[in-house]
């Protein structure tokens, strides 16, 4: 992408979201959900849910190679390798901000149940650690959580994938949903483009750290604050974020998620960085890689 295309990118996303305002209003009126319709924050979330249900899949497709390589353990220092160079995803997984289930088909490929994905002809991916045995998909947006449940059924994951329809801040609170995720019970956290949306990110990253078992892994693919670029591009990102926060739900583009993750707790290994092929003027840059507790 050229410099011009990078500068334009946030505005393209915002415009796509704006085009979903009529559909969001229609859906809320049909559901007689006037509380959400007339609440600025509720409406913003509903708009983002509608937008993501329509465009999330395109965004997933654009990022699929990176995320699959990450879960296969083929990423080191922001680069993709042909062979396994780190730990592939395994065991009990917590998917943060699962959205409408765009990654459910990928998880089905890593699951070790014989039925998951089988009816859809999805390929199976090998994991030396025995694959995924259980997934908690945490998603508070009711529009997205409904779509997520449907997607989990479509890919044949309903035996092992549990939708947790609350914010990440409530996963250990049994009064908020029908369950509780205990500290030290999760093998792998997978966060794809979601830390940008959670409230009180530093506090909640610390809480997520506590849910990981010692030796557990956090797989990270997040868009973050510009760090490589100079003051002009940082100012431009900050300026875009003012409008972004109006049209893109709770998502923010100026978060230093890398710093938050590093200081969430004590890590044995940290391998997260901006992919070297992303230019310094990228307005929506990423961090990519894993942390091992
Ligand atoms: C940009 S979307 C990404 C969705 C999904 N990971 C994907 O790649 O398709 C960010 C998601 O984070 C969710 N989110 C917002 N607040 C959250 C919270 N407190 N806890 C967990 N997820 C949250 C949003 O509802 C949204 O579905």
TrEMBL record:
<dbReference type="InterPro" id="IPR052356">
    <property type="entry name" value="Thiol_S-MT"/>
</dbReference>
<dbReference type="Pfam" id="PF13489">
    <property type="entry name" value="Methyltransf_23"/>
</dbReference>
<protein>
    <recommendedName>
        <fullName>Methyltransferase type 11 domain-containing protein</fullName>
    </recommendedName>
</protein>
<dbReference type="InterPro" id="IPR029063">
    <property type="entry name" value="SAM-dependent_MTases_sf"/>
</dbReference>
């Amino acid at each position: 992408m050229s410099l011009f295309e990078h500068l334009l990118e946030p505005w393209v996303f915002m415009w796509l979201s704006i085009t979903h305002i009529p559909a969001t209003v229609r859906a809320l009126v049909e559901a007689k959900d006037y509380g959400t319709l007339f609440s600025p924050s509720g409406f913003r979330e509903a708009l983002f849910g509608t937008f993501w249900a329509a465009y999330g899949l395109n965004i997933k497709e654009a990022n699929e190679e990176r995320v699959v390589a990450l879960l296969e353990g083929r990423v080191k220092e922001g680069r993709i390798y042909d062979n396994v160079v780190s730990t592939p995803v395994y065991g009990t997984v917590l998917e943060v901000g699962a959205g409408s289930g765009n990654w459910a088909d990928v998880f089905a490929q890593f699951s070790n149940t014989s039925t998951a994905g089988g009816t859809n002809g999805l390929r199976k991916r090998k994991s030396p650690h025995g694959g995924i045995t259980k997934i908690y998909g945490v998603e508070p947006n009711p529009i997205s959580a409904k779509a997520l449940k449907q997607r989990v059924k479509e890919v044949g994951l309903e035996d092992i994938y549990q939708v947790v329809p609350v914010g990440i801040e409530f996963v250990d609170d049994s009064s908020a949903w029908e369950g509780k995720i205990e500290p030290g019970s999760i093998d792998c956290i997978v966060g794809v483009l979601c830390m940008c949306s959670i409230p009180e990110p530093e506090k909640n990253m610390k809480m997520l750290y506590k849910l990981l078992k010692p030796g557990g892994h956090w797989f990270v693919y997040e868009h973050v604050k510009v760090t490589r670029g100079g003051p002009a591009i940082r100012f431009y990102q900050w300026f875009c974020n003012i409008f972004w926060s109006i049209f893109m739900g709770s998502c923010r583009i100026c978060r230093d998620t890398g710093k938050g993750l590093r200081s969430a707790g004590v890590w044995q290994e940290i391998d997260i960085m901006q992919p070297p092929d992303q230019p310094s003027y990228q307005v929506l840059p990423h961090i990519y890689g894993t942390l091992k507790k």
